[in-house]
């Protein structure tokens, strides 16, 4: 299915981010090959969202390097990184509240193209994600889960090379989580994806290799079945939750 | 109709419909016919409302569309007026001075805007900086009463301003200069054109990205747009508009003075926009009309404390019509016709509503 | 103790809830399940007083509170953990907790320390700004802050969102312990089936702004019943 050349699409070298005394990201060496669907898990405050923000230029690293497709992108501003083809859904819904869902998608779609193509992209996303019921509504007036869908739609409308999703299933009902998982697997045939999630059912549906963050560092990186049985991962993260 | 009223509440990138164009045509016809019924003095009063409405638009465009509150509009307004005055008194023709009255404030906006936007000033510091610039220019202009302050043949005259600013000539026929009613027509035409232009701007990708910046600047950047570039361009455009207004003001009154840069004027612009409703384009125009006529009416009634009364009015408006007159009235009408008013947006975003009328 | 009758509520002229009724007894934990956009948050916001219902009534211990504002209901010790957390971003964690305590007497009485004992993970974050916390830390803070008001009824809107699995279990344990040692009641909106199952005495299924069915705790342990409702279109 995935017939990409196995070269790293994104790579970090000794990446560090500290907020005052807090080392949110601590000398992280992370490599992601083109075509992967990688899951990131780890305790609350482990530094997952911070890591995503570093990758997308929303915050600048204290030290270390970020390479995208072989180019050094450390310190570039977020719009430049977005142009190179990284799309992100942040953890908190990050949308245009005063605009309709369609206008939200349109802003995402039209960036590098003409009006017609943008309109077509928007319709495609509306179809694929089944947003028809509320696409005309103001996003600020949508239910939480519906806002999440709009944001995922915005990321998709840009057709980036790398998609970062910070807790996509939050606020979704069980049925939608299944749908999201299927969607991600389908998307993964053309796009490299990294997903942060706390829902282990969801992880098990989509995951292959899982990276575990703990206290800003990578604690484990292995196949999902191995990781979820790892005693240390259980200890700091899963607790007694049955996942196997 | 319902759709039209809803538009009064919220921004839209859709092309304006027939109702909107009909509204423009009716407004244009009324403006064109008014001189038939009004005396010269009344026409003069109405003209200045139209001229100042341009200034109000320059602010509401920045504030309502992209979310930048600039107190610097009066700086560009004053610059436009002074540039026209000085140039027109130095040159034979007034065509070039008219254009300079727009272009120089625009350049000024470009330079100042560049440093403020790319210097990553936060929104509040941006507002404060523009205020400081206005104050400095006002002070500087007041200090030019000495005879050494001459541009070409023209003395700047400090506090006293420059009287006898030449009237505008017809570009292709410099013998003919514009009289009061002509100035009125020119102002009306400019206002309508600018209004249409700003409204149509919203339907362009540029306009929609601007609205996006107001709603969520971070998200705009994450989609790959360089928000700073858009902010700078918007600031430059609004500087040009304010300059145009100042130029027309100098032509209208044949006079420029440092008050054009003054704090009072800066405050007035904000009052117009707030009273009328910053999220709309028509609101500020209405705001200018109301406040201007109210001011002169109060003056005629012999109310000494006009400023005080205006202050009270502002407070009443802010409390009673949170979004300004036009959006509130639109909402009221919507309720009357039984439709659902727009605008029940979740926490935090109700400050950010905009519209396209 | 908390009772809502025939609630019609929504935004503008458009009702989202169509005559919904709900009753929570002393010390009862009631779960609410429903698909996206079915009106769960609208119900919570109506119960806490952010939205005034168009018709219907809400009462607490028999006394009508339909018209009372949100702050009044807070004083009556109805606690609310909203979807989206709404912590104060520029206040520290400690200050956020203080804001949750209703009266000065309570603050001095050490309610914050008491709650912190149940939330050891917040201890080392006490001086950090609320806005600097990670998503899960914020959610934890929102729950803790609500408990600082010593609520008689807690309205929880998807409280486990963003929280790691082991802490979700700890919170379930904590809420069960609180049920034992006090008479607090809970209305719990949740998508996490294990969590809602662990806590709820009854689960109401909300569909298109109304209660379409009530499930007992037993029903919930039957995977078939659950599937039927979770899969319901
Ligand atoms: N601006 C900041 N100032 C200080 N500390 C911060 C700041 N931003 C994040 N932190 C801290 O850095 C740590 C990592 O936060 P991050 O949001 O990356 O965690 P996370 O892994 O995404 O957690 P969660 O699963 O809860 O979302 C947290 O302990 C957080 O409190
Ligand atoms: N502020 C608002 N103005 C207008 N309509 C709204 C507003 N908030 C929500 N709605 C609409 O009301 C309906 C119910 O929303 P609500 O937030 O109650 O859903 P929910 O059941 O909590 O969904 P979720 O599981 O996604 O949180 C949705 O269709 C939504 O679009
Ligand atoms: Mg996070
Ligand atoms: Mg909800």
UniProtKB/TrEMBL annotation, chain A:
InterPro entries from the UniProt entry: AAA+_ATPase (IPR003593), ABC_AA/LPS_Transport (IPR051120), ABC_transporter-like_ATP-bd (IPR003439), P-loop_NTPase (IPR027417)
Protein name (Swiss-Prot/TrEMBL): ABC transporter domain-containing protein
GO CC terms, sorted: plasma membrane
Keywords (A to Z) from UniProt: ATP-binding, Nucleotide-binding, Transport
A Pfam family that the UniProt record links to this protein: ABC_tran
Every ABC transporter domain range: 10-240
Record PANTHER family: CONSERVED COMPONENT OF ABC TRANSPORTER FOR NATURAL AMINO ACIDS-RELATED, HIGH-AFFINITY BRANCHED-CHAIN AMINO ACID TRANSPORT ATP-BINDING PROTEIN
Gene Ontology MF: a single term: ATP hydrolysis activity
SUPFAM superfamilies: P-loop containing nucleoside triphosphate hydrolases
TrEMBL record, chain B:
Subcellular location per the Swiss-Prot or TrEMBL entry: Cell membrane
Entry's Gene Ontology cellular component terms: plasma membrane
Spans traversing the lipid bilayer: 20-41, 48-76, 96-117, 183-211, 232-257, 269-291, 303-321
Assigned keywords, A-Z: Cell membrane, Membrane, Transmembrane, Transmembrane helix
UniProt cross-references to InterPro entries, sorted A to Z: ABC_transp_permease (IPR001851), LivM-like (IPR043428)
GO molecular function: branched-chain amino acid transmembrane transporter activity
Membrane-topology annotation of the record: Multi-pass membrane protein
Pfam families: BPD_transp_2
Protein name per UniProt: Branched-chain amino acid ABC transporter permease
From TrEMBL, chain C:
GO BP annotation list: L-amino acid transport
GO molecular function list: ATP binding; ATP hydrolysis activity; branched-chain amino acid transmembrane transporter activity
Keywords: Amino-acid transport, ATP-binding, Nucleotide-binding, Transport
PROSITE patterns: ABC_TRANSPORTER_1, ABC_TRANSPORTER_2
SUPFAM superfamilies the record matches: P-loop containing nucleoside triphosphate hydrolases
Coiled-coil parts of chain: none
Alphabetical list of Pfam families matching this protein: ABC_tran (PF00005)
Sequence ranges assigned to domain ABC transporter in this UniProt record: 2-233
Family from the record: Belongs to the ABC transporter superfamily.
UniProt protein name: ABC transporter domain-containing protein
